[in-house]
User: Fold Glutathione S-transferase from Rhizobium calliandrae.
Amino acid sequence: MGILRVLGRVSSINVRKVLWTCEELGIDYVQEDWGAEFASTRTPEFLTFNPNGLVPVIESDDGILWESNTICRYLASKYDRSDLLPSNPWSRALVERWMDWQATELNGAWRGAFLGLVRRMSAYADPLVIAASARDWNGKMEILEKQIILAGPFVAGKTFTLADIVLGLSVNRWLSTPIERSNLPAIVDYFERLSTRPAFKRGAYDAMP
Assistant:
């Protein structure tokens, strides 16, 4: 079996999802910097990997794959880690529900505040855009707070799953962005639990939002 190739810069939260998953699986991989100030994702070479020109992309024995949450699901299934992604259809759906929520609902909420305050992108410099995004972001995090209290100690229940990887990185981003945050003690405790995991520590995934 060849070594997994992960294309994408570590500053990308979506790349970090894949890297954290690899660390949890304990598999060999090589990470290559693509995107932003690194190798361009708009070249013909890269666009043959992902026509969207986005990271991450992986190259495995099975072929090329893109979309971060899909990659995480694929890796957990390939290495038979039903603890991370259950084989039972209902249990799996409870995990995938929160992975999809992260990609659709939560990501859209933080965009204005994060890109305006952390990435300093001019298109998001309007204080009204930032304020509206911060309110929406806090609202989504309040939903997550209630879920952790209800199901905890992890997002989908008593055990750590892929949902905690994708949402844990999002929580780190929320805690690291200079906005006025809602008081959500369950989320703070949740992130502290995640940050004690050896795979999390190896990747130092709290080093950047």
About this structure: The beta strands are 4-7, 29-32, 57-60, 63-66.
